[in-house]
Specification:
This protein is of the alpha/beta class and 418 residues long. The chain is 46% helix and 15% strand.
Amino acid sequence: MGAALLAKDILKKITVENVPFSLALKQAFKNDSSVSKEDRSVVSAVVGCSLRHYIVMERLLKDAYPNIESEGLSALLVAFSNALFIKKIPQDECNALAQSFLKEEDTPFKDFLAPYLEEKKLVPEDIEVGSFEFLSYRYNTPMSVIKMWNKQFGHIITSRILKANSKPAPVVLRINNTKISDEDFFNKYQDFEKCDLAGIALYKGQDRFKNSEAYNKQLVSAISPAFKEMIDEGDVDLFRGLAVYAEYPNDLLTELMSRYESLNNIEYVAGSYSAFINAKNSVAKSGSKGVNVYEAGASSIVTCISKPVHTFLVMPDSSRLNLLQVLPDYFLRFNIEKLDELLANQSKALEEAANQVEDGGYLLYMVDTISKKESMGLVNEFVKNHPEFMFIKDKLYFPYKKFGGSYYFAVLKKGTND
């Protein structure tokens, strides 16, 4: 199967059948073992590029070919993306595939493509520069998200978020301090930059960090520093007990394994099957016998936790807007209409966990998103309704800042404020 045809089929699975990007690639390459490693890389790049420019390219193609069906649209997107950006598949192959889906009376695809090859801009000229519509086309982000950010943070911060999300995130790594100290690590590995946050490094090497000696020796792991800062502030003491409620796969246990020789006295309640498998795999990797993993919803936390714990960490599902930068197809999955449902669930999880925190203990909350309603808004409302909890600290990560990412965490303490 030709690279253009394979890319078209994969793109259709993602955009029409709602198959996640990585899974669609995996299935396609598994079913066609004749695809070389080099071609796999090219196909992945073309599909990813088509998704990264999907909103504006779909508009342009549907304006030019209003009756085009989904399979034909996928073929045109592949040809469009290859011509303007990737340029790895022979363009004649792409054009021929695209043309096969057009009717005789349609504009030939070569003629449609010609102005853009002569540096015509993708965003239509009739769209006001700086408008929500312009930003949506320019940064391939749902307009509903842009409007929300603009309302909550203003135009300048919204523009910074969008620009940062359109670029690769910085490679932020957690040093495994059970195996090596920060000082020894930075003395030995020159491709890593020291940060003002202990235990965290930025990778500055030319090759992929997963090819580095430090990674192969399991001395570093990719992880958001939000996990470390939250644990630092949350007075986590495994001897006194830690409980976790998480509804999506995350790096928490990786962070704990980077600071403790062994994991003990941890009760981990997974609110979804994917979170359950993620936790079980992390526990198996650590070889620890002191982590109990359960699969249960927020309302069943009380059935899993036998007694109040010193620290309870809550990571409910969220709008997960951090994935807009990480996954090329997440803009297709996000639905702002589900935000109220998410907020109700987040509030429920926080309430249920709060009941299992001992006096003097800590309640930690984390979501991987940029949304005031899901972060400080929800936490402020909780503290207002629960005077027995003191606000200690919170932090909202923005993708345009040093460590990148879109995370929020809050630390609350149970007890009167003396």
